Amino acid sequence: MVSPSQRSGLGRLAAAVREVVLVVAVALVVSLVVKTFLLQAFFIPSGSMEQTLDVGDRIVVSKLTPGPFDLHRGDVVVFSDPGNWLPPAPQPDRGALAGALTFVGLLPQDSDEHLVKRIVGLPGDHVVCCDASGRLTVNDQPVDETAYLAQGVAPSEEAFDVTVPAGALWVMGDNRSDSADSREHHDAPFVPVDDVVGRVRAVVWPLPHWAWLETPSALEEVSGS
């Protein structure tokens, strides 16, 4: 027979359990809403964006760009594979719990279906590499890329002359000698704006790499075509 004091204790325990379940449920819903509409975490699997982003970095992406905020030249963005840019790869088995936490945004998204690059050309831009001084030009204006390219790295070893179509972007990795970007995918070099997940705002892990990513003025100040 359960005494009144035992019933009271069981009641308090049940109330505490219900409160914990409610708090966890609310936290998961909030996290899912944040991931869907505001922020999403990703990790960097390759060196195509060095020196800006290193392998293993955890980044936070703002999903308000594009949307309430416009994309700009120089923004670092995460986008869905626009069409066979990524080689087929086996899907890692992260387990049910890890998969659920990733779905609601509590773990960073795997990058097996996404890429991260820097916007060099917006719709209508004329992007050329290189001029007589070995510089990238956008709308006939030379761009100083020293803010994000490693010292001594050429803007591109491959010459190109493109005009970005409406609704699309020309993107390049900062590690130009090791980046499979718009230059390499001749059949589909442009990234539809609709495929952009968001703009990379910060590196949040590991702590020594913490950084807030600003848009470099060299590209942002280029005049439209």
Describe this protein's structure.
By secondary structure, this protein is an alpha+beta fold. The chain has one domain (40-90, 108-220): Ribbon (Umud Fragment, subunit A). The chain is 21% helix and 24% strand. The chain contains three helices and twelve strands. The chain has helices at residues 4-37, 95-104, 217-220, and strands at 39-43, 58-62, 76-80, 114-121, 126-129, 136-138, 141-142, 160-163, 168-172, 191-192, 196-205, 211-212. Strands 1, 2, 3, 4, 9, 10, 11 and 12 form an eight-stranded antiparallel beta sheet that branches. Strands 7-6-5-8 form a four-stranded antiparallel beta sheet, with no helix packed on it. Strand 11 (196-205) and strand 12 (211-212) form a beta hairpin. The longest helix is centred in the first third of the chain and has 34 residues, at 4-37. The radius of gyration is 23 Å and the shape is elongated. 25% of the residues are buried. The model is unreliable at 26-35 and 103-108 (pLDDT under 50).
Structural class: alpha+beta
User: CATH-wise, what's the superfamily?
Assistant: Umud Fragment, subunit A
Q: Beta-strand percentage?
A: 15-25%
Would you state the CATH class? Mainly Beta
Number of domains: 1
Inertia-based shape: elongated
- Unreliable spans are 26-35, 103-108
Give helix % range: 10-25%
The total count of helices amounts to 3
Order of helices and strands: HEEEHEEEEEEEEEH
Give me the count of strands: 12
CATH architecture: Ribbon
Distance between the termini: 85 Å
Largest sheet: 8 strands, antiparallel
